Amino acid sequence: MAKIRHNKFLDTVDEIFSDAKNKGVFHLYTEDEAYTGRKVRIKGKDLFHFGTTGYLGLEQDPRLKKSAIEAILRYGTQFPLSKTYVSFVLYSDLEEHLHRMYQNPVLVAKNSTLCHLAVIPSVVRDEDVVILDHQVHNSVQSACTMLKPRGIPVDMIKHSNLNMLEDKIKEYGNKYRKVWYMIDGVYSMFGDVAPIEELTYLLKKYPLFNLYVDDVHGMSWAGKHGTGYVLSKLGKLPDKVILVSTLSKSFGASGATMICADKEISRYVKNFGGPLSFSAQLEPPSVAAALASAQIHLSDEIYEMQNELKDKITYCNALLKNTTLPLIDENLCPVFFIGTGLPAIGFNLANRLMNEGYYVNLGVFPAVPVKNTGIRFTISRHNKKEDIKGLIDAMVYHHPKALEEANYSPNRIRRSFNLPLMGEDREGVKIPSSLVLEHAATIDNVDPVAWDNSLGKNSSFDRRGLKFFEDVFANNDKPEDNWSFDYFIVKDTSAKVILATYFTTSLWKDDMLSPASVSIDIELKRTTDSYYLTSRVTGMGSLISEGDHLYIDKNSPQWKEALVLLLNAVYKIQEKNNATMVVLRDFEEDDQEIKDFFQSQGFIKIHLPESCVIEDLNWESKEEFLQTLSANSRAKIKKDVFKYEHFFDVEIKHVVSEEELAYYYQLFSNVKSRNFDLNSFTYPKKLFSNMRNYSGWEFMVLKIKPEFDDRAVKKPVAVAFNYFNDTKIYNAVLIGLDYEMSEQFQVYRQAFFVLLKNAKKLGAKRVNLGFSASIEKRKFGARIIPKVAYVQAKDNFNLELIESMSIKPHSK
């Protein structure tokens, strides 16, 4: 099978960030002539600034500014030399002050990203294993990719899931020297904190367990001498904890720090940490500003600043308690997150708040799951209490307005974040009175005329084909072989069909569209855990059908309303079936209207394998068939197909014995076991057995003629399982091959040509050749159609875990 075109994670992020930019909430520029910290000027408007990470406001402290200016005048703008050779004169003074703060060795780096890149590959040895918290900062995760080529396993657990963590520690306990768990002290999106007390217990319980903490968002506003949230809980830094913090953000200067109690580790990282050894050092003004800030941190003044900020945080929490705003986590951190659910609602609310005079950040995918979009705002010493009250009042007014415009209810947001529901459990979604949604759980109860005239004319999902699928995927032993079906038709007041589609809810392999190398590794784990990384998915169409699964009349002015009506119904199906994801497929890649609509509803676009269709069957001979192809394809077909045609006997069968069926299933399994590019569960034997009971299905069997077949037992070398629907669409659904004979006789290509000849004989108007192998199918005249799906997951964990597996470690 040819490789499919896999989704690129960065392409998805680019789509969402570009949308955010177009909506006016990303990639903005300030226009201030000078900063005070309280306000920023954007798009000609002075906005109260609730987006800073300088929580103590030290970046505006006159002492830091004066020190930086004097350093520039005395030493210049930079000291361009690696610290391995010579450090700038003020470095030793800064390091001495930081040592006094932390009471441990401190290394200074250019920034936290470079610090992680220096420290992690140095302290994690080849005999270790790493466990990432799902929400640990991207800079930590990026640094860990450097470990994989060395053969160091990098695993992931759900956010702050200590049961899962302890299971991993036990799993790895006898295999590795150390188990490193990498976390944030304060998580930058939701503002929640690491469970330090519980982690301390695990540090004592398991000798091999070690902790690596990024506490850049906990710095300065907490802890003795402002040494951060984590140390405020630990008291003393244990030997098995490495702490990375910052000289920027709340510290007010620039740079990052690594602190550990083990002097030998500090020495080793200083000598061998790549960016620490070979990158340029901090500029003189940054070192001077950091030194001035360290002097403040070592004085009692830091506690006055901490208390001032704490008072404002407490005030903000008190205001929020008197509202119904969905605050995701309440604590004494300066980071707050108000859920909006969909990105479109977040864009709307962010713009509304800017129009009211308040700048806030938007938390959006990939920092949070798509349906966990929200307004992230921060409190700093620059903010006055009247500013905070003004912001909360503005959100109280505009949050429900933004929800109302999106037909989104407060409880839907609360469900997305697992928050307590408000009052009566109702969706509160306005349904356009002029549209009627018809829903059925079996094709038997669907309006036959409406279905046949809309979606039913496509692919294998005419009424007969769907009844077949319902029969196959019911009352089976394995969970993956039992699907629930839901059919939807939306009509207007004149009973005209605007929309028709069907969904199945079934168990999917989460790596279905991942690179084959990733699926191969995951399948090894499934030898002991059959359902590792699998999820229930409510998906448009089914795992066996392909084609246009959505009929939508875009000539109707209400087509978008019809889609909103459909999605509201699908979400209820998702909840009923406890599905973790909704997948909408198969859409043409260049349909901008569909893309814009689904992205506004919180779906992300992913690429699917290309669809392959032959629509030109107006030929009567092989010579005429060749004339429909390109010159290059004609040569290929002559060489690889016509040359071998005389070796084959072909039989189209509708009645087959149990023995024949068993062998056909074996041929299909040959193909399935090799195809990790589209990794799904193997279909049950019942699928093939039931083909004998439903008209439209055929077994297209290829054999090598006896005089050319030197095998003792002469069996078929290929079988195609095809479906001819009521509207003369011929569907190549599945294929089975004998790979031992395939190369010698070009069996795969011959099967394609036999399939086309049979479609021609039946009077087919179109042939659907299925997904993938597009290079081969193009040779036969197939039109290649790039396809995409739109995905909305409740939780990013499984998707990101699989994404983290895309860099394959070397074997030890």
TrEMBL record:
GO MF, one example: transaminase activity
Required cofactor names: pyridoxal 5'-phosphate
The keyword Transferase appears for this protein: yes
Pathway(s) it belongs to: Lipid metabolism
A matching Pfam family: Aminotran_1_2
Domain Aminotransferase class I/classII large: 47-386
Coiled-coil region(s): none
InterPro entries: Acyl_CoA_acyltransferase, Aminotrans_II_pyridoxalP_BS, Aminotransferase_I/II_large, AON_synthase_class-II, PyrdxlP-dep_Trfase, PyrdxlP-dep_Trfase_major, PyrdxlP-dep_Trfase_small
Keywords (A to Z) from UniProt: Aminotransferase, Pyridoxal phosphate, Transferase
Record-linked PANTHER family: CLASS II AMINOTRANSFERASE/8-AMINO-7-OXONONANOATE SYNTHASE
Record's protein name: Aminotransferase class I/II-fold pyridoxal phosphate-dependent enzyme
